[in-house]
């Protein structure tokens, strides 16, 4: 019976051979050496670009053109009052009236009239050719036009009037006042050209130009820039 069981036993299974799988594709999940290097390079470039953009936005200050900045400042102001002089002028007039060519009435009037004259710079006439920037010394040299004087402003309401005459008619008083006003304006214009007063006005003009360019140059990135000013006749 044992022999029968041996005869009936199941046949043996054939030996199982190990299956060899093909290598995993590079686009399936793992990166090749070249792809890893490219990825790290891209990340490094992205990081460097972020740093550069942050520095540009918060720390970098681009330097502008100092001449263009000065021209823009002058264009906005157009005219700059740099000096004002207040003084008194003395005017004296004589009025003679008569009958049949005989001078019978003579009146004299003296007036002390406060006057004001302003000295201005016409910045609208400025051009880039009148400016020179020296990068080495950080100096902006500017040549400005001659000063212009305003029409004298006579404060006749504050004038002191002294009149002499036996009898001063209304017409004589009006003519004396008108003549004194014309004479006072003429004297005020002459006083404005006084070398001492004109020297003060020119010095004030140079300082005014330097002060007016300080902020535009600082905004343009030239906080330590120096401004030199001279007139065309210097």
Task: Tell me what the structure shows.
By secondary structure, the chain is of the alpha+beta class. It has 5 helices and 8 strands. The longest helix is centred in the N-terminal third of the chain and has 26 residues, at 33-58. The chain has helices at residues 2-8, 33-58, 66-77, 170-192, 195-219; strands spanning 79-99, 102-122, 131-134, 139-144, 148-149, 153-154, 160-165, 226-231. The chain has one domain (66-231). Mean pLDDT is 80; it is low at 1-10 and 55-62.
Proportion of helical residues? 25-40%
From the alpha-carbon coordinates, what is the Rg to the nearest angstrom? 47 Å
Largest sheet: 5 strands, antiparallel
Judging from the principal axes of the Cα atoms, what is the shape?
rod-shaped
Question: Kindly state the mean pLDDT as a whole number?
Answer: 80
List the topology elements.
Layout: H1 2-8, H2 33-58, H3 66-77, E1 79-99, E2 102-122, E3 131-134, E4 139-144, E5 148-149, E6 153-154, E7 160-165, H4 170-192, H5 195-219, E8 226-231
Parallel strand pairs: 4-8
Antiparallel strand pairs: 1-2, 2-5, 2-6, 2-7, 3-4
